[in-house]
Amino acid sequence: MSDIITSCLQLQKNISTNRIVVKEINGCDGSFIVNCVISYCIKQNSPLLIVSSHNSITHYHNVGLRMNHNLFKSCEAGVIDYFDFGDATLTNIMEYAESDQLLIDVLKKIEEMQRNHDTVNIIFDGITHLLDLQYTLQEVNKFGSEIIEIAAKSKNPLVIFHCNDVMEDDANHCWANLLSHKAQTVVEVENLSSGLSSDVSGHLTIKYPGNKFNEEHIHTVDMKPKKYLYKLFDRGVKWLAPGTV
Amino acid sequence: MRSFRKFIDISTHINGTKVKNNLPYVSSGIPSLDHIVGGGIPAGSIFVVEEDVLGVYSKVLFKYFIAEGVACDHELFVTSLDEDPHKITSELPQPCALPPEDEKAPSTDAEKMKIAWRYEGLSQVESSFGSNTNLGHNFDLSRYIDADTIEKSKIQYGTTTWQDSTLSWQTTMRRGKLKSALFHKLLRNIYETVLRSSGTNMLRLAIHSLGSPIWMAMDSDDTEFQNYGRDLIMFMYYLRILIRDKNVAVFITIPSHLYEDPIIMKKVLYSAHNAVRIESFAGSEKETNPVYKDYHGLFHITKLTALYTLVPFVPPSLDLAFKLKRKKFVIEKLHIPPELEETSEREQDDITATPSTACGGFRKKDIDF
């Protein structure tokens, strides 16, 4: 499993600021991609900052225990750090404090980690919740660009945005597309249109917009995306070619 | 040094819970519902019921959830704007030791199915779910829990009233802030309740008909239509953040059929963990369709999330229907009755579909299977 993820997401390639966008379509849950990347970073002992606004750190820790890594232990060792964005916003509301500082706090957290580590990888889980919290499209787009800009100051970092694409007529969709334009790799996870199945968990489509400037693809107008089916297990994910279930 | 450590939590000792994936699960009060959503409602999660058009059956599920909390001696927080929550808690089904017996009409010779001899030895197909569950209680809908028991139980009622629906908490649209006093007050109520809860007992939050017209009064008065539903979406998100990783189970009913814009419900459900939708036959053409004569409606599973695990639960079937019997509410696998009638109709004519036009003419495509 880890080899497939490593190769499909190009995690081991020395790409300057490897930007990956995980898009959840049709109500599908794409947090398994985040779990796989966390697992990769822990095994590589690569520093990681998790900004969580959708799933809690405890959820990732419990999933990680089944995938044979201990997230809390890595946090104690200083390899992983996290910023609970959702909790910080809620606390501000209940204490009648301003929320304008939160985005700046996230950027400061990244810079703080960069002082101690050469490479700092970043995962922002549930970034489209910022639009639910009434940040404007301009603000969140600028925030996304600033994260990429600050992340680029460290050596070959991973930056992963996990977003929910609600529908085409929505700001979430617009922002997911804006992020996808900035990305090296776009992973789209989608539920089966026929409903739930015990054999297959959903569709997975991987696109590489970042490769369009590579020599081998420079004359290609439309690069074909890679399509897979995937099946979730307790301890990992299995990716299947379409028709091979 | 071992990297894997078995996690043992005090929640294993909480009455009325079952631990699965390091997470305590509580019963919804309906064994068949628990079975089809993966064993119950996990702590730290939001369970949404998209109401049927008249709200009759969703209220039954709501009462079951509260009754189960009373039976397990859990802490409860109940709120509703459309109905007095005290009235709801005065009509909770009473727990009974054994499952209420099914009412069976005496079968006549004419109704007995003729079955081929080779199939006589086979066991009957099991349509119902949850008959073997060891979580939760059985309830009798025809009898109510007495007032003394309700009085002594740990039920707290929300302080929001319909008068709050036109009050504005924030006069301007500020980032992250709820505009409506109604949503803000309820969130604060819940926040204080969660903080006060001991953590050694389960807290059940039950919110009836969230997002009904009373809740949305402020948004309806807003001249900017794109703000409609923003407080509801934000409230659901804050609720998700507030209860995660805590011994709190939330049960919300939402009249989703009132929302024309599908984006609002999709965003609301994004913050929920599990969701189901009730489609009642009352008032629809399916009410007179002989295919559905044994049921009161269809039961759809809208969302099932994996909490503390990678793999979400896959229910045994997605073709589900429910019936409200005199003593209990049951969810079953939908079975289409066999076509046994002999007629002179041609094979391509659909004899069991309800005619859509007055001049007759049955169409096979009218049957939805």
Automatic annotation (TrEMBL), chain A:
InterPro entries listed in its UniProt record: ELP6 (IPR018627), P-loop_NTPase (IPR027417)
CDD domains according to UniProt: Elp6
Domain of life: Eukaryota
Coiled-coil portions: none
GO cellular component: elongator holoenzyme complex
Pathway: tRNA modification; 5-methoxycarbonylmethyl-2-thiouridine-tRNA biosynthesis
Pfam families for the chain: ELP6 (PF09807)
Single GO biological process annotation from the record: tRNA wobble uridine modification
Stated family: Belongs to the ELP6 family.
Name of the protein in its database record: Elongator complex protein 6
UniProtKB/TrEMBL annotation, chain B:
Pfam families named among the record's database cross-references: PAXNEB
Principal location: cytoplasm
Pathway the protein contributes to: tRNA modification; 5-methoxycarbonylmethyl-2-thiouridine-tRNA biosynthesis
Record key words, sorted: Cytoplasm, Nucleus, tRNA processing
Gene3D superfamilies assigned to the protein according to its UniProt record, in alphabetical order: P-loop containing nucleotide triphosphate hydrolases (3.40.50.300)
Domain of life (superkingdom): Eukaryota
This protein's record includes keyword Metal-binding: no
BP term (GO), one: tRNA wobble uridine modification
Ranges for region Disordered: 342-369
InterPro entries on file: Elongator_complex_protein_4, P-loop_NTPase
One GO CC term, this protein: cytoplasm
Localisation per UniProt entry: Cytoplasm; Nucleus
Family from the record: Belongs to the ELP4 family.
Matches recorded under PANTHER family: ELONGATOR COMPLEX PROTEIN 4, PAX6 NEIGHBOR PROTEIN PAXNEB
Name of protein: Elongator complex protein 4
Originating gene: 692808
